[in-house]
C-alpha cells in the first residue's frame, strides 16, 4: 500500500511572520493525523523559522527548488546541503512554473534529481502537459518525456525514493481540476512508463500526487482513485483550514 502524501506548495506567498503563523495553525489542525505524510513547502527565507515550528511534529518541511551544484559562484542559487541544514527533508523539482518562467529543462531537472537523491532529500518531481499539448492529443507524450527525462540514469532503488506530482498545467491555479478519472488515467499511464523503465513492482511502489486546483471540495473524490496517492496543493495550502481538510481527506 502506498502511504498518502499531501504536500502544500506555498509558491511565492507569505512573509516570514505569516509563514510561521500559518505553520503553527496547521501543526495544531493536523496533530492527530497519523497515517499520512504531510509536507509544507514555504519560500527559502521562511524555511529555517518554519522548521522550528514543525520540529517534532507530523508536518515535514520541503523546499520549492534547489540547485544541482554543491557550492560556489552561482549567485541566487541554493544547495541541497543548505536546505538540509535549515531542516528541510523534501524538495519540489521541475515545477511547471520553473519550466515555464525559469527555463528548466528535463536535463536540469534530472541533474537536480540526482543531487537531491545523493544528499538524501525526498524529491517531488513535477510533470504535466499544457493545454495546447492536451488539445493536440500530446498529453501522454509530453508526460512520458518529462518522466523519462527526469529519471534518466536513476537506479531503481533511488527511483523508489521519488514522488511524482502529475500537474496538468491548465489546471494549476485556474480552478479547473482534471476530473478524477482523467487524472487517474494519466497516473496509470505514468505507472506504465515507470514499469517500462524499471519494473511493475517498482512502478507500483512509487507515489504519484495529483496537482492542479486540488482543494478541500474535490480532494475526497480524487483520493478515491486507485492510482492517486496524494496531492501537491498550491492555493488551497495557504490556509490552515482548507489544507488541514485536504490532509484529512475521506476516501
Ligand atoms: P494550485 O497549484 O493548487 O494552486 O492549482 C498547484 C501547484 O502548482 O503545485
Model description:
Helix content is 44%, strand content 15%. It is built from 12 helices and 8 strands. The longest helix is centred in the last third of the chain and has 18 residues, at 180-197. It is globular and about 45 Å long. The chain starts with a strand and ends with a helix. The structure holds 2-phosphoglycolic acid. 2-phosphoglycolic acid (PGA) is lined by residues 9, 167, 172-173, 211-214, 232-236.
Task: Supply the key terms.
TIM Barrel; 8-stranded parallel barrel
Q: Determine the number of helices (DSSP H or I, runs of at least 4 residues).
A: 12
Q: Let me know the average pLDDT.
A: 97
Strand order of the largest sheet: 1-2-3-4-5-6-7-8
Which structural class fits the helix and strand makeup?
alpha/beta
SS strand fraction: 15-25%
Task: Please give a quick description of this structure.
The protein is of the alpha/beta class and 251 residues long. Helices cover 44% and strands 15% of the residues.
Amino acid at each position: 500500500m502506498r502511504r498518502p502524501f499531501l504536500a502544500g506548495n506555498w509558491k511565492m506567498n507569505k512573509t516570514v511572520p505569516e509563514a510561521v503563523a500559518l505553520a503553527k495553525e496547521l501543526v495544531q489542525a493536523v496533530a492527530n493525523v497519523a497515517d499520512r505524510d504531510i509536507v509544507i513547502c514555504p519560500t527559502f527565507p521562511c524555511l529555517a523559522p518554519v522548521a522550528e515550528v514543525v520540529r517534532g511534529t507530523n508536518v515535514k518541511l520541503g523546499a520549492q527548488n534547489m540547485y544541482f551544484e554543491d557550492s560556489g559562484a552561482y549567485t541566487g542559487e541554493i544547495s541541497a546541503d543548505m536546505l538540509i541544514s535549515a531542516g528541510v527533508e523534501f524538495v519540489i523539482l521541475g515545477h511547471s512554473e520553473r519550466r515555464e518562467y525559469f527555463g528548466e529543462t528535463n536535463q536540469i531537472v534530472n541533474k537536480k534529481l540526482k543531487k537531491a537523491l545523493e544528499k538524501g532529500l525526498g524529491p517531488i518531481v513535477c510533470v504535466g502537459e499544457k493545454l495546447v499539448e492536451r488539445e493536440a492529443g500530446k498529453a501522454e507524450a509530453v508526460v512520458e518525456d518529462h518522466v523519462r527525462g527526469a529519471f534518466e540514469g536513476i537506479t531503481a532503488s533511488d527511483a523508489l525514493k521519488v514522488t511524482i506530482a502529475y500537474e496538468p498545467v491548465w489546471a494549476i491555479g485556474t480552478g479547473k481540476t482534471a476530473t478524477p478519472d482523467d487524472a487517474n488515467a494519466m497516473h496509470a499511464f505514468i505507472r506504465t512508463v515507470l514499469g517500462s523503465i524499471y519494473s511493475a513492482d517498482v512502478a507500483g511502489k512509487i507515489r504519484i500526487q495529483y496537482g492542479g486546483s486540488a482543494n478541500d471540495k474535490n480532494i475526497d473524490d480524487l483520493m478515491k482513485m486507485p492510482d492517486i496517492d496524494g496531492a501537491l496543493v498550491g492555493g488551497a495550502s495557504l490556509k490552515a483550514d482548507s489544507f488541514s481538510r485536504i490532509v484529512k481527506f475521506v476516501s
